[in-house]
Amino acid sequence: MIKYRIERHQTESISWKCGEYGCPGRLNSLKDYTKPDLKTSHSHGPDPERLAVEKVVVDMRKRCGRQLPYAAFQASSQVVTDPQIAAAIPSFESLRSTLYRHKGNKNEPSTPTSLRNLCIPDKYGKLCTGENFLQIQSS
């Protein structure tokens, strides 16, 4: 199986480009994704192992919405039964920034848009020693 990405939306059709960097492979389909027509041949063959690894990484990103990134990495990696695919999965260190960026920090306050919206929660207003970090906070 070969992975494609949308290159251009037109009124009646969609142009697709091969997902492999540097490959000239192009495909056209109707707007409803029917009648695919290969316009330009690929410079490579299908790579099922790479596609399986990408599916595992996508699964990790989805799990990051519900779990911490390292737990999502472990859970997704343990699901893989094929040793070749397991060996091809990138390490946690190489995926760390991607997984944390995808997770975001939903528990933290949003970035204020003005000084009027700036309000520092109590848990951030104290030092490790328990002393107040903020002397005055105007509301």
From TrEMBL:
UniProt name for this protein: FLYWCH-type domain-containing protein
